[in-house]
């Protein structure tokens, strides 16, 4: 990825953690390309989506294991998202095609996880399928508004309450709680509730980012 300015880089507390720096340095010394790390995030997303789909038709302990594996894949995807930028920016391995690899895999990964969660919930609750697609589309739109602002010369707006890290936190927690659904006879209600939270949060995030962008553009326009 190309080197972003500080205001266009997502603020992450984990980036300053010792283990994160050590892992990024190891990848830099091994000359692992940031774009390859970005591609790996999609592989984790595809695996996580497959686990979610299988969980929709599995039962008992098998379903619980699949949901936990999906949660692990979500976190590995986020780890890749952090490391690709660290290797590119802090270890001088940026590339001209970096912006493509920085954004496009994220959109694919969001859809893999969120839409698959909808289909997993739809096994027992038909509303899950359309709710998953709605959450996926809204997740992509939040990123679109951010990049629209950048295209208009404004700093990237990473505001929430349902930016990418927040979406993945909600989905991770949803998967972990859903793993215990057999204890009370649940069959997808937790996944449905998690997707509803993502939809509501994305709608608020879209509104906030659009308002921020509108204010910034009005402030930057010359007085008439």
Describe this structure in words.
It is built from seven helices and no strands. The chain is mainly alpha-helical. 73% of the residues lie in helices and 0% in strands. The longest helix is centred in the C-terminal third of the chain and has 32 residues, at 189-220. It has one domain (14-214): CDP-alcohol phosphotransferase transmembrane (TM) domain (Four Helix Bundle (Hemerythrin (Met), subunit A), Up-down Bundle), CATH 1.20.120. The protein has helices spanning 18-29, 34-57, 60-90, 98-122, 127-151, 164-178, 189-220. Residues 1-7 have low confidence and may be disordered.
Q: Radius of gyration, Cα only, in angstroms?
A: 19 Å
Per the CATH scheme, the topology name is Four Helix Bundle (Hemerythrin (Met), subunit A)
The CATH architecture is: Up-down Bundle
Derived from helix and strand composition plus strand pairing, the structural class reads mainly alpha
Structure at a glance:
With 224 residues, the protein is mainly alpha-helical. 73% of the residues lie in helices and 0% in strands.
Using brief descriptors, characterize the structure shown:
mainly alpha; 224 residues; Four Helix Bundle (Hemerythrin (Met), subunit A); 0% strand; disordered N terminus
Explain the layout of strands and helices:
Blueprint: H1 18-29, H2 34-57, H3 60-90, H4 98-122, H5 127-151, H6 164-178, H7 189-220
Helix pairs in contact: 1-3, 2-3, 2-4, 3-4, 3-6, 4-5, 4-7, 5-7, 6-7
